[in-house]
Write a structure and sequence with these properties.
By secondary structure, this protein is of the alpha+beta class. The protein contains five helices and nine strands, in the order βαβαββαββαβββα. A hairpin with a 4-residue loop joins strand 8 and strand 9. This is 2'-5' RNA ligase.
Length: 192
Amino acid sequence: MNSAKIRKEYSLVLHPSIEIIDKVAALKAKLTTKIRKYASRDSVAHVTIIKFLASQKELMIIEKKIEMFCNSQKQQKVIFNRLISSKKSRTIFVIPDESSKTYLKNLLDDFRKRLKTRYTKSGGEAHISIGRKLSSTQIDLAQNLFGPVTLKFICDTVAIRKFSKNAGQFEVIKTFKFLENPLIDAQYSLFD
């Protein structure tokens, strides 16, 4: 098979500040001391927008679309402050406050609409995972482990991450900043 047509696995995520990445890493470390191994333990804090498969050529097109969208995207402060432990989804995660939830829903929907292909899969509602694929026992053990959690950051960066089979997780390969530039007429037609 032509290597140019081989599709690899990627994700597009909101990429928080290093301060938030470190805070989430500390929460994960605390969880690790209580329950040991679990899925997403080593994953860097992020909010998933989409997962997708792309060849190298397709990835270049996607990168251009992301770059153009980010060129005019406004930066905004967001707050994630509600910790959820769900036995149904087997996950511990933090969700945004109501104001941030509305902004993030619109932002994620805009990205998803512009990047939709038959090889994309949308993420869910905006959240930052602390632990995934947890057993009921692990969730019970972690129930009172965390006090109030507040993660505040300026939402100003998205990242493309590529799945690494060696690491068993996604790794950032490229970031894009929200530049807050006005759209010019030619750019409007690209998003129709």
